[in-house]
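Section 4.2 – Deliverable D4.2 (structural model, holo form)

The reporting period included a commitment to supply a predicted holo structure for the target in complex with fe (iii) ion. Inputs used:
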Amino acid sequence: MYLLPELPYSTDALQPVIGAETMKTHHGKHHARYVQVVNEMLGDAAGAQPLEDTIAAAHARGDRKLFNNAAQAWNHAFFWESMAPRTTAPTGALADAVAASFGQAGALKDRLVAEGTGHFGSGWVWLVAAKGKLEVRATHDADVPWLDEATVPLLVCDVWEHAYYLDYKNDRNRFLRAWIDRLANWDFAAEQYAAALRGEARYRYPLATGTPGTKVRQGSDGAVLERRIT
Ligand code: FE
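Output (structure tokens):
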């Protein structure tokens, strides 16, 4: 079976930008449900291959229900990693790439806020590396940007209403501005970018068993949780 990855911080760690109630519901209900549906749909085959392969295969054969739930499981896991309860900034090769593609970090942030605010309906706003350049892109509903192998996601923000409604009501713009200024995990983005430049493995959704450096435990509600040991 596929796991619900444990949050890399406590549910109140991102306050006041994202409240604990939002995090508890978002991770413990929304994300958990996507994982549960994938596991129910696949039965014994769940977790037998990397989630990325399940997503790509479901997309290729037009299985929208499996794709939507599996991709949402992946997107949320990447979203938790895309946030940090401390202020970070682009460094190293990523800082150079930001300067080359956007001029300055402020312009990139403005672009991400504008793209996410302007996206109609539910979706995700990403910073990706594609063909040697950084780009800001929005994807709709559950869509992921990496089915094209040349595109490497570096950061993502969830712009579904469930991500911000308790804290910001309908003001997605204010959520995105606070998110990019105070929560975006530039250290994670820099790691992803450096790995992409070296041609090394990028972020992968944790597998249920046998993933080096992980331990698996059962949550109080029966959900399988995982915390990476770093
Ligand atoms: Fe979400």
